[in-house]
Design goal:
The complex is a heterodimer of chains A (280) and B (126). Chain A has 280 residues and is an alpha/beta fold. Chain A has a single domain, classed as Protocatechuate 4,5-dioxygenase, Chain B. Chain A has nine helices and ten strands. Chain A has helices at 15-21, 31-35, 38-47, 98-110, 125-134, 160-175, 205-217, 227-234, 241-249; strands spanning 3-10, 51-56, 71-74, 78-79, 94-95, 116-118, 144-150, 182-188, 255-266, 269-278. In chain A, the strands form two sheets. Chain A has an eight-stranded mixed beta sheet with strand order 6-3-7-2-8-1-10-9, with helices on both faces. Chain A has a two-stranded antiparallel ribbon with strand order 4-5. Chain B contains nine helices and one strand. Chain B is 60% helix and 2% strand. Chain B has helices at residues 20-25, 27-35, 39-47, 49-55, 60-68, 71-76, 81-90, 95-103, 107-116; one strand spanning 123-124. Chain B has 126 residues and is mainly α. Chain B has two domains: 20-92, Protocatechuate 4,5-dioxygenase, Chain A (Orthogonal Bundle), CATH 1.10.700.10; 94-126, no CATH class. The chains are: A alpha/beta (280), B mainly alpha (126). Chains A and B meet through helix 7, helix 8 and strand 9 of A and helix 2, helix 6, helix 7, helix 8 and helix 9 of B. Strand 9 of chain A pairs antiparallel with strand 1 (123-124) of chain B, so a sheet runs across the interface.
Chain lengths: 280, 126
């Protein structure tokens, strides 16, 4: 059966894509952020995942309000990035893993997660930037991918509790996949930030740090909050922490923190990074 | 108070939750902004804004908000910030420009507020 090596959760702010394209990794503004990834690169080089299940939220590249799934799973041989309208460079395509896609789809539906399946799926910055951060160098990352998209565009969004359960089901599905592949689960987004309204610029460092700590000690801690409570606590777009929750929930059994880093601000966002190894 | 089916009942100061009510109100506006993923559509908009707004069926409030480049008005008219960001991108505005506009600050003052949220440029290796 396949093995889950762990999860990596990271912010996916679009301006990171611009900084990478312009080689600004060593500028004073960016250096503390990019340096945070070095221990995670070392860990990935050691655990050598073959496949990444990438839990992210689309911001209006693949999905529009005409048809907006709450949970969607990619089932394509290849995933492409495209023009998002505001100027970050389009990156190289990503290889899919059709066997894992369909195993996930079959298992999730059997476990009563009524997901949408996508045989064509554009992936936006929330998918591409974490891939560029974790496997830098500009070419396609050396592993296969399965995108899992969670709606955070239009309320009602799935609750923290539901997203956590989805993550658990994803983990259980990977563990029953008849393959010798090593799988890493990525959760992208957050942490606290708000782009819209008079409250734009809102961040909540205390909550973010508590949340990050909870992912080691008590991973379902944030599931106590409703979606609107989360908006209040972490900002309208901070609800992207759902991706972190789902990714962490995918790890069965005991875990070990490999690395964590928190940094304010990147653009309008409190940026967080965690790598957690599964000891299962 | 009567509420159209689709509303989420919870007030957060300075925040419009993009719920069913907003999605109903803003559909044409958001659809137009979604179209700005395409360079060809961005060029068509710039060539004739008015015709482009007509093509997508924007109402008077939405057209005024677009003409004013005013993010708070666009949100009131049903706009969702992820699609509005594509509109702002046409003019080279980033999320800090739109943050500054919505909070009535200069961009520098808005950026200073963001930095202050983290007690300056502190890095936390937890």
């Amino acid at each position: 059966m396949a093995k889950i090596v762990g999860c990596v959760t990271t912010t996916h702010v679009p301006s990171i894509g611009g900084a990478i394209a312009k080689h600004r990794e060593n500028d004073p503004y960016w250096k503390p952020f990019f340096d945070g990834f070095k221990p995670v690169h070392e860990w990935l080089a050691r655990v050598k995942p073959d496949v990444a299940v990438v839990i992210y939220n689309d911001h209006g590249l693949n999905f529009f309000l005409d048809k907006l799934p709450t949970f969607a799973v990619g089932a394509a041989a290849e995933y492409r990035h495209a023009d998002e309208g505001w100027g970050i460079p389009v990156v190289a395509p990503f290889a899919g893993d059709l066997d894992l896609s369909w195993h996930l789809i079959n298992t999730l539906v059997e476990k009563e997660f009524d997901i949408t399946t996508c045989q064509e799926m554009l992936v936006d910055h929330a998918f591409t930037i974490p891939m560029s951060l974790l496997w830098p160098g500009g070419s396609s990352p050396p592993l296969r991918t399965v995108p899992v998209c969670i709606n955070t565009v239009q309320f009602p969004i799935p609750s923290a509790k539901r997203s956590y359960h989805l993550g658990e089901a994803i983990g259980a599905a990977i563990e029953t996949w008849d393959s010798d592949a090593r799988v890493v689960v990525l959760g992208t987004g957050g942490l606290s930030h708000q782009l819209d309204g008079e409250r734009a610029g809102f961040m909540n460092k205390d909550f973010d740090l508590k949340f990050m700590k909870s992912l080691i000690d008590q991973p379902d801690w944030a599931t106590q909050y409703s979606s609107t409570e989360l908006v209040e606590l972490v900002g309208s777009q901070g609800v992207e922490l759902l991706m972190w929750l789902a990714a962490r929930a995918a790890l069965p059994g005991k875990v070990r923190k490999v690395h964590s880093n928190y940094h304010i601000p990147i653009s309008n966002t409190a940026s967080g990074l965690m790598a957690i190894e599964s000891l299962h | 108070m009567s509420m159209k089916s689709g509303a989420i009942a919870h007030e957060i100061l300075g925040t419009t939750i993009f719920d069913g009510n907003q999605a109903r109100k803003g559909y044409a506006l958001n659809k137009m902004c979604f179209s700005f993923n395409s360079a060809e559509n961005r060029a068509e908009f710039l060539k004739n804004e008015d015709a482009y707004c007509t093509k997508f069926g924007l109402n008077a409030a939405q057209r005024a908000a677009i003409a004013n480049r005013n993010v708070l008005q666009l949100i009131t008219a049903g706009g969702n910030v992820y699609y509005l960001a594509k509109f702002a991108g046409i003019f080279g505005l980033d999320v800090q420009d739109i943050g500054a506009q919505q909070t009535g600050l200069t961009k520098d003052a808005f950026k200073a507020r963001l930095v202050a949220a983290g007690n300056h440029r502190e890095v936390h290796n937890l």
